[in-house]
Amino acid sequence: MGFHPSLNMMHLIQSVATDRWQLFKRTVVYLMACLKRRANKRDLSNEWHQLEESALERFPTAATIYDL
Hints:
The protein is mostly helical. It has helices spanning 5-41, 45-58, 62-66.
């Protein structure tokens, strides 16, 4: 048929939502890395591992980014 503006808008909304979700996951990973560095400096590795396990349970898809 032809150009359908509502389908195009729906695709745009989905891509923006996906971009925001990716940004959120990367922010969580970045903050986890910062906390890990601080924990290593202060010898709080046991507390860090508990926090890390808890966060990865809540955000399992972030685990693939975190492992990079």
